[in-house]
Protein backbone atom coordinates (compact mmCIF):
# COMPACT_ATOMS: atom_id res chain seq x y z
CA UNK A 1 0.00 0.00 0.00
CA UNK A 2 1.51 3.29 -1.15
CA UNK A 3 1.50 6.31 1.14
CA UNK A 4 0.23 9.59 -0.29
CA UNK A 5 1.06 13.05 1.01
CA UNK A 6 -2.39 14.64 0.86
CA UNK A 7 -1.06 18.05 1.86
CA UNK A 8 0.18 18.52 -1.69
CA UNK A 9 -3.34 18.32 -3.11
CA UNK A 10 -6.26 20.77 -2.95
CA UNK A 11 -9.26 19.84 -0.74
CA UNK A 12 -11.41 18.62 -3.64
CA UNK A 13 -8.63 16.37 -4.89
CA UNK A 14 -7.96 15.11 -1.37
CA UNK A 15 -11.57 14.01 -1.01
CA UNK A 16 -11.40 12.25 -4.33
CA UNK A 17 -8.25 10.37 -3.32
CA UNK A 18 -9.68 9.36 0.06
CA UNK A 19 -12.75 7.84 -1.61
CA UNK A 20 -10.63 5.56 -3.77
CA UNK A 21 -10.20 1.85 -2.93
CA UNK A 22 -7.45 1.23 -0.39
CA UNK A 23 -5.90 -1.21 -2.88
CA UNK A 24 -6.15 -1.42 -6.63
CA UNK A 25 -8.59 -4.26 -7.39
CA UNK A 26 -7.68 -7.14 -9.72
CA UNK A 27 -8.74 -6.76 -13.36
CA UNK A 28 -12.49 -7.15 -13.77
CA UNK A 29 -13.27 -6.76 -10.06
CA UNK A 30 -15.57 -3.91 -9.04
CA UNK A 31 -15.06 -2.59 -5.47
CA UNK A 32 -18.02 -3.09 -3.13
CA UNK A 33 -17.83 -0.44 -0.42
CA UNK A 34 -21.38 -0.77 0.92
CA UNK A 35 -21.69 -4.53 1.48
CA UNK A 36 -18.34 -6.22 0.87
CA UNK A 37 -18.06 -10.03 1.00
CA UNK A 38 -16.79 -11.18 4.38
CA UNK A 39 -16.66 -14.06 6.83
CA UNK A 40 -18.04 -12.27 9.85
CA UNK A 41 -20.19 -15.21 10.96
CA UNK A 42 -17.13 -17.45 11.26
CA UNK A 43 -15.29 -14.67 13.07
CA UNK A 44 -18.10 -14.14 15.58
CA UNK A 45 -18.39 -17.88 16.25
CA UNK A 46 -14.62 -18.29 16.72
CA UNK A 47 -14.38 -15.35 19.11
CA UNK A 48 -17.42 -16.42 21.13
CA UNK A 49 -16.30 -20.05 21.47
CA UNK A 50 -12.71 -19.14 22.39
CA UNK A 51 -13.82 -16.55 24.94
CA UNK A 52 -16.31 -18.95 26.52
CA UNK A 53 -13.77 -21.79 26.81
CA UNK A 54 -11.14 -19.48 28.27
CA UNK A 55 -13.44 -17.99 30.89
CA UNK A 56 -14.70 -21.44 31.95
CA UNK A 57 -11.24 -22.98 32.43
CA UNK A 58 -9.91 -19.88 34.21
CA UNK A 59 -12.85 -19.89 36.63
CA UNK A 60 -12.42 -23.62 37.29
CA UNK A 61 -8.70 -23.18 37.97
CA UNK A 62 -9.40 -20.24 40.26
CA UNK A 63 -11.93 -22.36 42.18
CA UNK A 64 -9.42 -25.21 42.48
CA UNK A 65 -6.65 -22.94 43.75
CA UNK A 66 -8.70 -20.69 46.03
CA UNK A 67 -11.36 -23.06 47.40
CA UNK A 68 -9.86 -26.55 47.08
CA UNK A 69 -6.12 -26.04 47.54
CA UNK A 70 -6.42 -22.70 49.36
CA UNK A 71 -3.06 -21.56 48.07
CA UNK A 72 -1.95 -19.24 45.27
CA UNK A 73 1.44 -18.98 43.60
CA UNK A 74 3.05 -16.26 41.50
CA UNK A 75 1.84 -17.86 38.26
CA UNK A 76 -1.76 -17.56 39.47
CA UNK A 77 -1.32 -13.81 39.81
CA UNK A 78 0.41 -13.48 36.43
CA UNK A 79 -2.57 -15.05 34.65
CA UNK A 80 -4.70 -12.03 35.66
CA UNK A 81 -2.97 -9.57 33.27
CA UNK A 82 -2.92 -12.32 30.63
CA UNK A 83 -6.70 -12.69 30.89
CA UNK A 84 -7.13 -8.90 30.80
CA UNK A 85 -5.17 -8.48 27.58
CA UNK A 86 -6.89 -11.54 26.11
CA UNK A 87 -10.37 -10.12 26.71
CA UNK A 88 -9.21 -6.78 25.29
CA UNK A 89 -7.93 -8.65 22.21
CA UNK A 90 -11.34 -10.26 21.70
CA UNK A 91 -12.96 -6.83 22.11
CA UNK A 92 -10.71 -5.47 19.33
CA UNK A 93 -11.81 -8.34 17.11
CA UNK A 94 -15.50 -7.58 17.68
CA UNK A 95 -14.72 -3.90 17.14
CA UNK A 96 -13.17 -4.75 13.78
CA UNK A 97 -16.15 -6.96 12.93
CA UNK A 98 -18.49 -4.06 13.56
CA UNK A 99 -16.56 -1.42 11.64
CA UNK A 100 -14.94 -3.27 8.76
CA UNK A 101 -15.40 -7.02 8.93
CA UNK A 102 -13.14 -10.04 8.80
CA UNK A 103 -11.66 -11.35 5.57
CA UNK A 104 -12.70 -8.24 3.67
CA UNK A 105 -10.53 -7.48 0.67
CA UNK A 106 -8.69 -4.20 0.86
CA UNK A 107 -10.09 -2.97 -2.45
CA UNK A 108 -13.57 -3.16 -0.91
CA UNK A 109 -12.62 -0.52 1.67
CA UNK A 110 -12.20 3.20 1.01
CA UNK A 111 -8.78 4.65 1.66
CA UNK A 112 -10.21 7.04 4.26
CA UNK A 113 -11.68 4.15 6.27
CA UNK A 114 -8.74 1.76 6.37
CA UNK A 115 -6.62 3.74 8.82
CA UNK A 116 -9.10 3.02 11.63
CA UNK A 117 -9.05 -0.73 10.92
CA UNK A 118 -5.25 -0.80 10.74
CA UNK A 119 -5.13 0.94 14.11
CA UNK A 120 -7.36 -1.75 15.67
CA UNK A 121 -5.12 -4.45 14.21
CA UNK A 122 -2.08 -2.68 15.62
CA UNK A 123 -3.60 -2.57 19.12
CA UNK A 124 -4.57 -6.22 18.81
CA UNK A 125 -1.01 -7.26 17.93
CA UNK A 126 0.29 -5.58 21.09
CA UNK A 127 -2.39 -7.25 23.21
CA UNK A 128 -1.57 -10.63 21.68
CA UNK A 129 2.12 -10.23 22.49
CA UNK A 130 1.31 -9.28 26.08
CA UNK A 131 -1.07 -12.20 26.54
CA UNK A 132 1.36 -14.79 25.20
CA UNK A 133 4.22 -13.34 27.24
CA UNK A 134 2.34 -13.55 30.55
CA UNK A 135 0.83 -16.95 29.77
CA UNK A 136 4.07 -18.70 28.88
CA UNK A 137 5.86 -17.26 31.89
CA UNK A 138 3.01 -18.59 34.06
CA UNK A 139 3.17 -22.03 32.44
CA UNK A 140 6.94 -22.31 32.82
CA UNK A 141 6.84 -21.21 36.46
CA UNK A 142 4.20 -23.84 37.18
CA UNK A 143 6.19 -26.51 35.33
CA UNK A 144 9.20 -25.69 37.53
CA UNK A 145 7.12 -25.80 40.72
CA UNK A 146 5.52 -29.15 39.79
CA UNK A 147 8.44 -31.06 38.29
CA UNK A 148 11.49 -29.63 40.07
CA UNK A 149 12.00 -30.41 43.78
CA UNK A 150 12.41 -27.32 45.93
CA UNK A 151 16.01 -26.11 45.96
CA UNK A 152 17.04 -28.34 43.02
CA UNK A 153 18.81 -26.89 40.00
CA UNK A 154 18.62 -29.67 37.43
CA UNK A 155 18.43 -29.70 33.63
CA UNK A 156 14.67 -29.22 33.66
CA UNK A 157 15.02 -26.13 35.83
CA UNK A 158 17.73 -24.47 33.75
CA UNK A 159 16.03 -25.26 30.44
CA UNK A 160 12.80 -23.72 31.71
CA UNK A 161 14.57 -20.64 33.03
CA UNK A 162 16.47 -20.06 29.77
CA UNK A 163 13.26 -20.35 27.73
CA UNK A 164 11.45 -18.09 30.20
CA UNK A 165 14.06 -15.31 30.03
CA UNK A 166 14.52 -15.44 26.25
CA UNK A 167 10.78 -15.57 25.70
CA UNK A 168 10.14 -12.55 27.94
CA UNK A 169 12.93 -10.47 26.38
CA UNK A 170 11.79 -11.27 22.85
CA UNK A 171 8.12 -10.46 23.35
CA UNK A 172 8.91 -7.26 25.23
CA UNK A 173 11.16 -6.27 22.30
CA UNK A 174 8.45 -7.22 19.83
CA UNK A 175 5.96 -4.88 21.52
CA UNK A 176 8.48 -2.03 21.35
CA UNK A 177 9.36 -2.71 17.70
CA UNK A 178 5.70 -3.00 16.70
CA UNK A 179 5.03 0.48 18.07
CA UNK A 180 8.03 2.04 16.33
CA UNK A 181 7.27 0.89 12.79
CA UNK A 182 5.19 -1.63 10.87
CA UNK A 183 7.41 -4.35 9.42
CA UNK A 184 5.68 -7.44 8.05
CA UNK A 185 8.80 -9.57 8.54
CA UNK A 186 8.52 -9.21 12.31
CA UNK A 187 5.31 -11.26 12.25
CA UNK A 188 7.17 -14.18 10.64
CA UNK A 189 9.97 -13.94 13.20
CA UNK A 190 7.51 -13.72 16.09
CA UNK A 191 5.44 -16.66 14.84
CA UNK A 192 8.58 -18.78 14.33
CA UNK A 193 10.03 -18.15 17.80
CA UNK A 194 6.60 -18.58 19.32
CA UNK A 195 6.18 -21.99 17.66
CA UNK A 196 9.58 -23.15 18.93
CA UNK A 197 8.72 -22.00 22.46
CA UNK A 198 5.40 -23.87 22.30
CA UNK A 199 7.20 -27.08 21.35
CA UNK A 200 9.73 -26.74 24.18
CA UNK A 201 7.01 -26.04 26.76
CA UNK A 202 4.99 -29.08 25.68
CA UNK A 203 8.00 -31.40 25.47
CA UNK A 204 9.56 -30.40 28.81
CA UNK A 205 7.29 -32.36 31.22
CA UNK A 206 6.88 -35.49 29.07
CA UNK A 207 10.14 -37.23 30.05
CA UNK A 208 9.61 -36.44 33.72
CA UNK A 209 6.12 -37.93 33.61
CA UNK A 210 7.37 -41.16 32.02
CA UNK A 211 9.90 -41.62 34.84
CA UNK A 212 7.23 -41.40 37.55
CA UNK A 213 6.42 -44.56 39.49
CA UNK A 214 2.80 -45.06 38.50
CA UNK A 215 0.65 -47.38 36.40
CA UNK A 216 1.01 -46.96 32.64
CA UNK A 217 -2.67 -46.00 32.28
CA UNK A 218 -2.27 -43.21 34.80
CA UNK A 219 0.88 -42.04 33.05
CA UNK A 220 -0.97 -41.83 29.76
CA UNK A 221 -3.77 -39.87 31.42
CA UNK A 222 -1.33 -37.38 32.93
CA UNK A 223 0.53 -37.06 29.63
CA UNK A 224 -2.71 -36.33 27.80
CA UNK A 225 -3.54 -33.58 30.27
CA UNK A 226 -0.15 -31.93 29.88
CA UNK A 227 0.00 -32.58 26.13
CA UNK A 228 -3.19 -30.66 25.41
CA UNK A 229 -0.77 -27.99 24.27
CA UNK A 230 -0.43 -29.92 21.00
CA UNK A 231 -3.43 -27.84 19.97
CA UNK A 232 -1.36 -24.72 20.56
CA UNK A 233 1.34 -26.20 18.31
CA UNK A 234 -1.18 -26.65 15.51
CA UNK A 235 -2.50 -23.12 15.97
CA UNK A 236 1.04 -21.73 16.11
CA UNK A 237 2.02 -23.55 12.92
CA UNK A 238 -1.10 -22.19 11.20
CA UNK A 239 -0.24 -18.71 12.38
CA UNK A 240 3.30 -19.02 10.97
CA UNK A 241 1.94 -20.18 7.61
CA UNK A 242 -0.52 -17.29 7.46
CA UNK A 243 2.19 -14.82 8.52
CA UNK A 244 4.28 -15.90 5.53
CA UNK A 245 1.22 -15.45 3.30
CA UNK A 246 0.70 -11.98 4.79
CA UNK A 247 4.31 -11.04 4.06
CA UNK A 248 3.89 -12.00 0.40
CA UNK A 249 0.53 -10.26 -0.02
CA UNK A 250 -0.48 -6.67 -0.70
CA UNK A 251 -3.99 -7.37 0.58
CA UNK A 252 -3.01 -6.72 4.21
CA UNK A 253 -6.55 -6.29 5.47
CA UNK A 254 -7.70 -9.69 4.20
CA UNK A 255 -4.66 -11.77 5.14
CA UNK A 256 -4.26 -10.14 8.55
CA UNK A 257 -7.68 -11.53 9.51
CA UNK A 258 -6.39 -15.10 9.32
CA UNK A 259 -3.34 -14.26 11.42
CA UNK A 260 -5.61 -12.54 13.93
CA UNK A 261 -7.93 -15.53 14.39
CA UNK A 262 -5.11 -18.10 14.51
CA UNK A 263 -3.44 -16.04 17.25
CA UNK A 264 -6.72 -16.04 19.18
CA UNK A 265 -6.98 -19.83 18.93
CA UNK A 266 -3.35 -20.21 20.01
CA UNK A 267 -3.87 -18.01 23.08
CA UNK A 268 -6.98 -20.01 23.99
CA UNK A 269 -4.97 -23.24 23.77
CA UNK A 270 -2.30 -21.77 26.06
CA UNK A 271 -4.99 -20.99 28.63
CA UNK A 272 -6.02 -24.65 28.39
CA UNK A 273 -2.42 -25.76 28.93
CA UNK A 274 -2.22 -23.61 32.05
CA UNK A 275 -5.65 -24.35 33.54
CA UNK A 276 -6.63 -27.92 32.62
CA UNK A 277 -4.18 -29.74 34.97
CA UNK A 278 -5.96 -28.11 37.94
CA UNK A 279 -9.51 -28.91 36.83
CA UNK A 280 -9.67 -32.60 37.98
CA UNK A 281 -9.28 -31.31 41.54
CA UNK A 282 -12.55 -29.41 41.15
CA UNK A 283 -14.44 -32.51 39.99
CA UNK A 284 -13.01 -34.58 42.81
CA UNK A 285 -13.83 -32.03 45.51
CA UNK A 286 -17.35 -31.18 44.34
CA UNK A 287 -18.47 -34.71 43.43
CA UNK A 288 -19.51 -33.62 39.93
CA UNK A 289 -18.47 -36.98 38.49
CA UNK A 290 -20.75 -38.81 40.92
CA UNK A 291 -23.67 -36.53 40.10
CA UNK A 292 -23.27 -37.12 36.37
CA UNK A 293 -23.02 -40.89 36.81
CA UNK A 294 -26.11 -40.95 39.02
CA UNK A 295 -28.14 -39.49 36.16
CA UNK A 296 -27.03 -42.21 33.73
CA UNK A 297 -29.17 -45.37 33.33
CA UNK A 298 -27.88 -48.53 35.00
CA UNK A 299 -24.84 -48.94 37.19
CA UNK A 300 -21.21 -48.89 36.22
CA UNK A 301 -19.05 -51.60 37.76
CA UNK A 302 -15.38 -50.85 37.62
CA UNK A 303 -12.40 -49.42 39.47
CA UNK A 304 -13.13 -46.85 42.19
CA UNK A 305 -12.22 -43.22 41.78
CA UNK A 306 -11.74 -40.37 44.18
CA UNK A 307 -15.25 -39.10 43.59
CA UNK A 308 -17.31 -42.29 43.84
CA UNK A 309 -17.04 -46.07 43.89
CA UNK A 310 -19.31 -48.71 42.43
CA UNK A 311 -18.63 -52.42 42.43
CA UNK A 312 -19.35 -55.83 43.88
CA UNK A 313 -17.62 -58.37 46.09
CA UNK A 314 -18.30 -62.05 46.73
CA UNK A 315 -17.84 -63.97 49.99
CA UNK A 316 -18.41 -67.59 50.98
CA UNK A 317 -20.50 -68.07 54.12
CA UNK A 318 -20.14 -71.51 55.72
CA UNK A 319 -22.06 -73.04 58.62
CA UNK A 320 -20.48 -74.85 61.55
CA UNK A 321 -22.39 -77.52 63.47
CA UNK A 322 -21.38 -79.28 66.66
CA UNK A 323 -22.70 -82.37 68.44
CA UNK A 324 -21.43 -84.63 71.20
CA UNK A 325 -20.60 -87.59 68.94
CA UNK A 326 -18.91 -86.00 65.87
CA UNK A 327 -17.59 -82.73 67.24
CA UNK A 328 -17.68 -79.55 65.15
CA UNK A 329 -17.97 -79.84 61.34
CA UNK A 330 -18.33 -77.32 58.52
CA UNK A 331 -21.35 -77.85 56.30
CA UNK A 332 -21.90 -76.54 52.75
CA UNK A 333 -22.70 -72.86 52.79
CA UNK A 334 -23.97 -70.21 50.44
CA UNK A 335 -22.19 -67.99 47.92
CA UNK A 336 -22.98 -64.42 48.93
CA UNK A 337 -22.66 -61.57 46.41
CA UNK A 338 -22.91 -58.02 47.69
CA UNK A 339 -23.36 -55.14 45.28
CA UNK A 340 -22.62 -51.65 46.60
CA UNK A 341 -22.64 -48.04 45.58
CA UNK A 342 -20.64 -45.50 47.52
CA UNK A 343 -21.05 -41.83 46.77
CA UNK A 344 -19.22 -39.15 48.68
CA UNK A 345 -20.38 -35.58 48.33
CA UNK A 346 -19.43 -32.50 50.27
CA UNK A 347 -22.50 -30.43 51.06
CA UNK A 348 -22.04 -28.14 54.02
CA UNK A 349 -20.32 -30.75 56.17
CA UNK A 350 -22.48 -33.85 55.81
CA UNK A 351 -21.85 -37.02 53.81
CA UNK A 352 -24.44 -39.22 52.20
CA UNK A 353 -23.66 -42.89 51.84
CA UNK A 354 -26.00 -45.09 49.88
CA UNK A 355 -25.45 -48.80 50.30
CA UNK A 356 -27.62 -51.45 48.64
CA UNK A 357 -27.14 -55.14 49.24
CA UNK A 358 -28.50 -58.00 47.21
CA UNK A 359 -27.84 -61.49 48.58
CA UNK A 360 -28.27 -64.55 46.47
CA UNK A 361 -28.13 -68.04 47.92
CA UNK A 362 -26.57 -70.91 46.08
CA UNK A 363 -25.70 -74.38 47.45
CA UNK A 364 -22.16 -75.52 46.73
From TrEMBL:
Its main location: membrane. Pfam families: Fung_rhodopsin (PF20684). Residues 60-283 form the Rhodopsin domain. It is a multi-pass membrane protein. GO terms for cellular component: membrane. The chain crosses the membrane at residues 44-64, 76-97, 117-144, 156-176, 188-210, 222-247, 259-279. InterPro entries: Rhodopsin_dom_fungi, SAT4-like. It is found in: Membrane. Signal peptide: none annotated. The keyword Cytoplasm does not apply. Keywords: Membrane, Transmembrane, Transmembrane helix. The keyword Transmembrane applies. It comes from the Eukaryota. Belongs to the SAT4 family. PANTHER family: INTEGRAL MEMBRANE PROTEIN-RELATED, PTH11-LIKE INTEGRAL MEMBRANE PROTEIN (AFU_ORTHOLOGUE AFUA_5G11245). This is Rhodopsin domain-containing protein. It comes from Xylaria multiplex.
